[in-house]
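Input record (one chain):
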Amino acid sequence: MIAIDVGNSTVIFARFSGLEIADRIALTTGEMTVPAAAAACARLLGGDDVSAADRDGPAWVASVVPAATAAVQEAFARRRACPPRILDPLRDAILEHDLATPATTGIDRLLAARAARDRFDAGRPRTGIVVIQAGTAATVDLVDRRGVFLGGIILPGPRLWLESLATTARIPGFRAQDADWSVAAPGARRALGRDTRSAVLNGLALGLSAAI
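The corresponding structure, as predicted from the sequence alone:
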């Protein structure tokens, strides 16, 4: 099976062998052109025989970026007879929900909630599950003990958090991966930044962690 996760920042291609990932390719969403998607497909599928490629199983796409989705569809159309299946919150019964506007809910949130429910409820009495993702946006979602997706909260992710501060004149841009998340731990003594850089990064580590 081929799975493609099209996010706002990253597109991930993965080829599964059973439940294990046999190969994985990550590209930035901004570079997701048809040639780039075709190159990823060629690596995952291998060979030039379309019918042989189709025997690898279906291709599933979960996307929140329509323009990148179109590039993936075109790339697969060149490589195989069977087009990729674009998952849809309304058409595909991913998870029972209690949403006012399910069509506008990110497919990534629903799939993560479904995966968490399937993984942690397997063979156990059902309990409520909180699902947290930190990408371009940080999301906190709730699945109740019945397995119903109730919705959640959307916050700026680490990169957006820092980019919003970088618009001011005296605060330069930093990378989210430079943040020292240990300052958010209870009892941490280094919470107060003694220069602009540490103040900004500590604000990210403490502020986003506390918000979540």
